[in-house]
From TrEMBL, chain A:
GO molecular function, one term: heme transmembrane transporter activity
Domain of life: Bacteria
Name of protein: Heme exporter protein B
One GO-annotated biological process of the protein: cytochrome c biosynthetic process
Classification via InterPro entries: Cyt_c_biogenesis_CcmB (IPR003544), Cyt_c_CcmB_bac (IPR026031)
Function: Required for the export of heme to the periplasm for the biogenesis of c-type cytochromes.
Location in the cell: Cell inner membrane
Pfam families associated with the record: CcmB
Annotated keywords: Cell inner membrane, Cell membrane, Cytochrome c-type biogenesis, Membrane, Transmembrane, Transmembrane helix, Transport
Species, as recorded: Aliidiomarina sanyensis
Entry GO CC: plasma membrane
Family: Belongs to the CcmB/CycW/HelB family.
Segments traversing the membrane: 26-44, 50-71, 103-124, 130-157, 164-185, 197-216
TrEMBL record, chain B:
Organism in which the protein naturally occurs: Aliidiomarina sanyensis
Subcellular location: Cell inner membrane
Record keyword Membrane present: yes
Matching Pfam families: CcmD
The protein, known as: Heme exporter protein D
TrEMBL record, chain C:
InterPro entries, per the entry: Cyt_c_assembly, Cyt_c_biogenesis_CcmC, Cyt_c_biogenesis_CcsA/CcmC
Protein name, per record: Heme exporter protein C
Pfam family, one: Cytochrom_C_asm
Cytochrome c assembly protein domain span: 24-184
NCBIfam families according to UniProt: ccmC
Subcellular location: Cell inner membrane; Membrane
Role this protein plays: Required for the export of heme to the periplasm for the biogenesis of c-type cytochromes.
Transmembrane segments: 21-44, 64-84, 91-114, 129-149, 161-180, 205-225
Highest rank taxon of the organism: Bacteria
Annotated source species: Aliidiomarina sanyensis
Family classification: Belongs to the CcmC/CycZ/HelC family.
Keywords from the UniProt entry: Cell inner membrane, Cell membrane, Cytochrome c-type biogenesis, Membrane, Transmembrane, Transmembrane helix, Transport
Membrane topology: Multi-pass membrane protein
Main location: membrane
Amino acid sequence: MVATRTVFLQLVKRDVRVALRQRSELLNPLIFLLIVVSLFPLGVGPGPDILARIAPGVIWVSALLSAMLGLDRLFRDDFRDGALEQMMLLPVSMEISVLAKIAVHWLLTALPVLLIAPLLALLLNLPTHAWGVLWLTLLFGTPVLSAAGAIGVALTVSLNKGGALLSLLLLPLLIPLLIFATAAVEAAVSGLSAAGPLALIGAFMVLSLTLAPFAVKAGLRVSVN
Amino acid sequence: MQFDSWSAFIAMGGYGVYVWSAFFVTFLCFGILALEAVWRRNKIREEAQRQQARSERIQKAKRESST
Amino acid sequence: MWRWLHPYAKSEATFALNQKLLPWFLIPGLVLTIVGVIWGLAYAPPDYQQGESYRIIFVHVPSAIWSMGFYVSMAIAGLIALVWQIRTAELALLAIAPVGAVLTFISLFTGAVWGQPMWGTWWVWDARLTSQLILLFLYLGVMALYVAFEDERAGGKAASILALVGVINIPIIHYSVYWWNTLHQQSTITKVITRFESPSIAPEMLWPLLVNIFAMMALAGALVIMRLNNELLRREVHRPWAQAILNQEKKENQNAV
């Protein structure tokens, strides 16, 4: 009997190693995020008030888009070279390996975002007392992005032109997250308690991490056959 | 009856454009869906007929060639 | 417990059931629509605040209610398709999706033409409207995913999974109106049902509204049945039962002409 945890860790290690070999692709979402965030002041004007007003939304929208940019890598290469079928044959339940995939996607796309979030907040003139809440929304929210994204990718991985379809599938699932995340940061900016929206985002995270693997598994079964 | 005349009914207290366009679009949508369903059924019927005729022709040709 | 479901895995049985059900949807639907629309437009009293413009409610509220109701029924069809591997349920999902999408569109459109005279704007990014827009995207996603697959079985399964995932959004949609209470008024009818409050709408308005709600359900249901029957016939056009039905229909049409 293979220990579930060993398999999980092995899968994470393998995927991280594979991703680290393609450094340029690894940096892409991060560069995209920085570019979008620095384009906004140029587009709407550099007034500190306006920037502080739109900062939560801009940061969250660009984090969402950059996460979607990295989603393709989640299953596509594995689907092409047959590693996905091997994954299905592993002696652990497939939800575990799916969870490993989601964890790797989070490590590679969301962790860098969490690290540069203060920089983004600085660029957009977000009041310092809201930084903590922004960081917490990203911490709780990005796993939802990875988990929901995995569902979308699992459903579209076998399609040749899945790109536009993927965003159509994911957009409705992610809008509530976006709304609550920006609501939390805005509450923090205006000095109110952000506990309510934060608790909801936390609930989204728990819900998506527990339920998404089942949907991903079913989706992959459809796509592989 | 809440309205005194036809023109008052059409005008809807000044909101005629909004009220009537809402009802018009609703029934237009339902009408399109219904017509599409009927039209689709006719298409399927034609297709079935064509296939039946074709299989009959093939049967006939087979019989003729075997004799 | 679920034995009764199994016969309907056969297209023929589902088709026969549909044929039996269709008049029960179509005739009450048409009659109630005529009654409800005339009642609502001509006989219901005008609203003391909104005047005659409130009459849009008689198409707006039914379409909004059933846009969500049909989504749930679509998800149930998806669940049946996935759990029992029943193919007719996949076809039902495919038949419901466009009707539901049209209902969502109607609710958005009538909401816009109602909002313009009342709020002075066609569209606001209010919770209720936004969630209705999300619902439209969900419907479009289900339909787009279905047609994206070359293999129809795979497409049906993928669409079922997506419909089930999207159903998580339905409670969010429903409670969003309580969470953020911006411009949109609270729903009058669910308040009666879920909280046993006395309705904040006059009975002279409530009754035609209820008639219209049932009318739209019946009509949209009839459309779903018609679409499902078409789809069943199209798939099984080579089978004897389908050919017998089509031939008979052809004869009836010729007699009628």
